[in-house]
Write a structure and sequence with these properties.
The chain has one domain. The protein contains seven helices and no strands. With about 150 residues, it is mainly alpha-helical.
């Protein structure tokens, strides 16, 4: 953390994680991994990614276990709001309640949010397609949807 009060940040982040069915830290890890695995250069720092997740409402993060797709969708929607709304972007707070943006890094932040959202949307699309394929294969009422090599 970039803050001088990392104990407060850790406490607030743990509280956020508790209030969100332990999804806050999971989402932070997912987003940081997306950033590091991306072929694009995503300009967001780990501190900014943590602050984005910290700024999400608890109800948006508090998805039941195993519903990662809905968690990713909430994050994608929030990133879109940050990209589109300068007031929301400028009011973004870190876990230690410091402002995340200033005028010099706002353009880079928006650019990074766009790229991270694009990466996130690709993952969401793949998950939706995989779920669709899985449900079609399991649908025994429509054998014409099951590939020949999987029919029994």
């Amino acid at each position: 953390m970039e803050s001088s009060n990392s104990i407060l940040a850790l406490h607030n982040l743990n509280k956020k994680d508790d209030n969100s069915n332990s999804n806050a830290k999971v989402l932070i890890r997912v987003l940081k991994n997306l950033k590091s695995d991306s072929k694009e250069s995503i300009t967001l720092t780990g501190y900014q990614i943590t602050s984005i997740v910290y700024s999400l409402e608890d109800y948006a993060l508090a998805k039941p276990n195993g519903q990662i797709l809905f968690l990713l969708l909430e994050c994608s929607i929030f990133l879109k709001r940050l990209i589109d709304n300068p007031f929301m972007r400028r009011s973004l707070k870190s876990p230690e309640n410091n402002a995340v943006l200033n005028k010099t890094n706002e353009e880079s932040f928006v650019h990074g949010c766009n790229k991270l959202k694009n990466e996130l949307d690709v993952i969401i699309k793949h998950l939706v397609l995989e779920i669709d394929l899985y449900t079609r294969i399991k649908d025994t009422n429509q054998p014409h949807l099951i590939p020949n090599n999987l029919q029994t």
